[in-house]
Design brief:
By secondary structure, the protein is mostly beta strands. It is 4% helix and 42% strand.
């Protein structure tokens, strides 16, 4: 299991970053590696996120010096969504079979967490997000049909999309983690525009289901000091609470969002008018 540590950035510092520095602080270029657990520990609300790609053998989620606990979920909760082939999540001996776009919430206190692929030639790609927790809630499997859907945008503004809320108060209980998937309608390329910030929580985007030569131009930074990152398939972007988070693609894409912070109210946003962006 490999950890990448990313420290928090102040907006006054971040506006000075050149392209290479922005990518080093906010972009995770390799999330999924066959046969490995790759995790990023962000000091933005101490969210951990990353990819798990089991091939021949099961991969076990363990603790380490980065957490300072006996086991990974001793003081944390976990959200998982599979974006690859069929896989198996085993939580303290209970098996949860997860096809593509199926997920699971795992409550604090679960000790033995294992990830397996049902076919090594078509491995599962488990994307996970974990936040500090204060209470244990039941582990639950969540299919896309069980997720809470919200339709936003329109074809006229090229941002028609469905937001599937997986880990959300409308679906299951969690301490602070909120997690879901946004699927754009055919022909739409914009996400989260008009954009917003939310000072009370941070967010991470994982872009996927992209063609090899497709790119998403992900806009971030303070509303008065916007920047952009060019993002390829299966790469992730860290968005601090003070930053906007919006993107436009050269082709089709889907993304998973995960948030941690003060509250779980999805609409708790500070909206930014397009005319106020700089």
């Amino acid at each position: 299991m490999k950890f990448d540590i990313r420290y928090a950035s102040h907006p006054e510092d971040a506006k000075q970053y050149d392209t290479a520095t922005q990518r080093r602080h906010f972009l995770v270029e390799q999330v999924f590696v066959p046969g490995e657990i790759r995790l990023t520990y962000s000091h933005q609300d101490r969210l951990i996120f990353g990819g798990i790609v089991p091939t021949i053998k099961a991969l076990v989620l363990e603790s380490g010096k980065e957490l300072g606990t006996e086991y990974f979920l001793e003081r944390r909760e976990l959200g998982v969504i599979n974006i690859g082939g069929p896989g198996l999540l085993v939580v303290d001996g209970t098996r949860y079979e997860l096809a593509k776009s199926e997920g699971c919430y795992v409550g604090m206190g679960a000790r033995d967490i294992r990830f397996e692929s049902l076919s090594p030639s078509e491995p599962a790609k488990f994307y996970l997000a974990s936040a500090p927790a204060h209470q244990s809630y039941p582990t639950i499997k969540i299919s896309q049909s069980q997720a809470n859907p919200k339709k936003l945008g329109s074809s006229e503004t090229s941002n028609e999309r469905t937001i599937y809320q997986y880990v959300h108060p409308a679906v299951c209980k969690s301490c602070q983690l909120v997690m879901g998937m946004t699927v754009l309608a055919k022909g739409s390329v914009w996400n989260t525009m008009p954009c917003h910030t939310h000072e009370r929580r941070m967010e991470v985007y994982l872009y996927f289901d992209m063609a090899p030569d497709a790119r998403v131009f992900h806009f971030h930074g303070a509303p008065s000091e916007t920047r952009h990152l060019v993002v390829a398939n299966e790469q992730a972007v860290i968005s601090p609470s003070w930053s906007i988070h919006s993107g436009v693609g050269t082709g089709a894409y889907t993304f998973i969002w995960a948030m941690a912070g003060e509250n779980q109210t999805f609409d708790d946003m500070d909206f930014v008018k397009p005319e106020d962006l700089r």
